[in-house]
Every structure is written in C-alpha cells, then in structure tokens.
C-alpha cells in the first residue's frame, strides 16, 4: 500500500503534492485524536459459515473509522497510515478488546479472527499483550484466530516466528490471509505451523473462468494435506457458493452470505433462523 501511495504521490506535481502531504498529515493528526478520544474507531464483524451445515462458526473482526467530519474512512487508507506512523498497535488493541467483548456474549463454539499487521507481529511485547487481554476478558485463547499475510508467515524472521510459536503454544490459532497473492514457495508452506488458509477473493471471483476452479481445488487439497482448514473469501454468487461446497472448502465468507455487521447484529445471526442468511447454502 505504502509503495502504491508513494508512486501516486510522485505522479502529481508541485502544489498537488503539497496538498496531498498536507492531507496526509492532517489525517494522521485526526487518527491520533480519534485514538485518544477512543469513540470513532471500532470493530465490525463479518460472519463466516461452515459450508456443509451452513452454521455460523466464526466471524472476522474488521476495523472501522467513522471520521467526525469526513465520515467512514476505508481500512485500506487508515491501516497503512497507522502502520507508517506507529499507531497500529493502538488500533490493534481496540479491535482485540471489541473482539473479546463480542466473544463474551457469543456461544463458546464461536471464534473470532483478528487481522494482525506485520509490524505488530514482530513486536516482542505482542504475545503478552494478546494473552493478557484474553485473560482479563476470561476468553479461552482457542477462540481467537490471528490472520497474517503470506509474506509475514513465510519470512523467517526470528521475532515473528517465536511470537507465533508462543501464541500457538497458548492455544491461539493462526490463519494466512489473502492466500495466493504473496510469494510463498511450496517448500516454505510445508514447514509452516498454521491452522488455516484463506483463499484470496480474486481467486473466487475468477473461479468461473477456465482452469481457475482447478487452481482453487488444488489450494483446498494442499490445505487439507497439511491438516489445515480453508476458508474462501469474497463469496458473492450462488454458483461460487455451490462450487466451493462441492470442492469441500470448509468455510465460506462473503457478501452473498453476510456483509460485516455491528456487534449486536452479528451476535443475533448466531443460531438464528437461517432462511435469510443461510438460504443460499441450504439450497446449494
Ligand atoms: P481482509 O482481512 O482480507 O478482509 C476482507 C475484506 O474484504 C474486508 O474489507 C471485507 O469487508 C471485504 N469483503 C468481505 N466479503 C466480501 C465480498 O464478498 N466482496 C468484496 N468485494 N469484499 C468483501 P475491509 O473491511 O475494507 O478491510 C480491508 C483490509 O484492511 C482487510 O482485508 C485487512 O487486510 C485490513 N484490515 C481491516 N481491519 C484490520 C485490523 O483491525 N487490523 C489490521 N492490521 N488490518 C485490518
Ligand atoms: Mg482478514
Ligand atoms: Mg483477506
Ligand atoms: Mg487483505
């Protein structure tokens, strides 16, 4: 993200670039203020379903910033900004607390996945911060899954590896997010201590095109061969849903099944009448 933003910046000239930098600095100021006030950044929760039973099995916590003047700012804007300005751990903590608050009120069979940026994961204090948060909310660590990107998982950096190991030792699970978009080798995947893969939505979107279903099928087979579960991200159509079910993809997530919801809305979907949300799966 940072690189792409940088390139766009240089493509503009003179005053435009000044303006852009001013905007960025203003947004950074606003983000600091928002974190200090602690009311405009919160998590929403996108339900994830078992493809065989159609049951809601977990949710993904996604950060939202409702800017006082500008309205909602996309995570693709403020997460990279937070990473570059050292504010990401503060956002991470808000999302983790919101997640625990939601887990407290959900049945113990439901888990929640939280996205973790590379910077957080490399911090030596990260495992203790996560585990003490879980402890203070009295949440079983096995109900938390941390989503990391392929590049982070594959890089053999000491701090990251030992942090993953100590959190997994305590029962926290790990998933590789946006799988297929990074540069991991089969050799490295073979040695990964990871519990789940999430197939990037670009593969799901292209699934109807020739050869792509086979690719998704291979990803599912690979995950299962390694004893991992696998989730499809960005399921938007009934035919994608049916194809993924037939391929024995374990879990499904996407707008077809549910958009990200407020905590209360997400909680109300658990075990409720399934005709609206799960209809597409049930019919499949
Ligand atoms: P992600 O972790 O891959 O999350 C999935 C994104 O896809 C979310 O976008 C979600 O709203 C969107 N999505 C879900 N289903 C569909 C669908 O069917 N179609 C389409 N087109 N999109 C779908 P969102 O919420 O805008 O988040 C974007 C990214 O920002 C996330 O991608 C994640 O990388 C990052 N992010 C979000 N929250 C956090 C956070 O708390 N911490 C960190 N470090 N990163 C976060
Ligand atoms: Mg994610
Ligand atoms: Mg993803
Ligand atoms: Mg992503």
Structure explained in plain terms:
- The chain has 284 residues and is an alpha/beta fold.
- It is built from 14 helices and nine strands.
- It has helices at residues 2-11, 14-37, 75-84, 88-105, 118-122, 126-136, 150-154, 158-169, 186-191, 201-205, 212-225, 238-246, 263-269, 279-283, and strands at residues 41-50, 56-67, 71-73, 111-115, 144-149, 173-179, 196-199, 229-232, 251-252.
- An eight-stranded mixed beta barrel has the order 1-2-4-5-6-7-8-9, surrounded by five helices.
- A hairpin with a 3-residue loop joins strand 2 (56-67) and strand 3 (71-73).
- Helix 4 (88-105) packs parallel to helix 6 (126-136) and helix 6 packs parallel to helix 8.
- The longest helix is centred in the first third of the chain and has 24 residues, at 14-37.
- One magnesium ion (MG) binds at residues 60, 115, 147, 177.
- This is Diguanylate cyclase (GGDEF)-like protein.
- Residues 24-274 form the EAL domain.
- It comes from Allorhizobium borbori.
Q: Helices, strands, pairings?
A:
Layout: H1 2-11, H2 14-37, E1 41-50, E2 56-67, E3 71-73, H3 75-84, H4 88-105, E4 111-115, H5 118-122, H6 126-136, E5 144-149, H7 150-154, H8 158-169, E6 173-179, H9 186-191, E7 196-199, H10 201-205, H11 212-225, E8 229-232, H12 238-246, E9 251-252, H13 263-269, H14 279-283
Parallel strand pairs: 2-4, 4-5, 5-6, 6-7, 7-8, 8-9
Antiparallel strand pairs: 1-2, 1-9, 2-3
The structure holds ligand C2E and magnesium ion (MG) (3 copies).
Residues 60, 115, 147, 177 line the site of one magnesium ion (MG).
């Amino acid at each position: 993200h940072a690189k792409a933003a940088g390139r766009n910046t240089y493509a503009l000239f003179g005053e435009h670039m000044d303006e852009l930098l001013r905007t960025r600095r203003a947004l950074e100021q606003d983000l600091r203020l928002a974190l200090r006030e602690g009311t405009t950044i919160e998590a929403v929760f996108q339900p994830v379903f078992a493809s065989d039973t159609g049951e809601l099995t977990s949710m993904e916590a996604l950060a939202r910033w409702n800017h006082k003047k500008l309205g909602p700012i996309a995570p693709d804007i403020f997460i990279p900004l937070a990473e570059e300005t050292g504010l990401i751990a503060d956002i991470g903590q808000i999302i983790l607390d919101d997640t625990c608050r939601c887990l407290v009120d959900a049945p113990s069979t439901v888990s929640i996945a939280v996205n973790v940026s590379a910077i957080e994961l490399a911090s030596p204090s990260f495992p203790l911060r996560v585990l003490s948060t879980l402890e203070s909310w009295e949440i079983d660590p096995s109900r938390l899954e941390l989503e990391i990107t392929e590049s982070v998982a594959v890089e053999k950096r000491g701090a990251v590896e030992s942090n993953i190991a100590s959190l997994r030792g305590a029962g926290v699970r790990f998933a590789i997010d946006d799988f297929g978009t990074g540069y991991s080798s089969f050799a490295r995947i073979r040695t990964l201590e990871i519990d789940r893969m999430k197939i990037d939505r670009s593969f799901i979107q292209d699934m109807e095109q020739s050869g792509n279903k086979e690719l998704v099928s291979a990803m599912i087979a690979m995950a299962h061969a390694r004893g991992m579960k696998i989730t499809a991200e960005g399921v938007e159509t009934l035919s994608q849903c049916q194809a993924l079910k037939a391929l024995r993809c374990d879990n499904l997530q996407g707008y077809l099944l549910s958009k990200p919801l407020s905590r209360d809305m997400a909680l109300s979907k658990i075990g409720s009448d399934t005709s609206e949300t799960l209809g597409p799966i049930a019919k499949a």
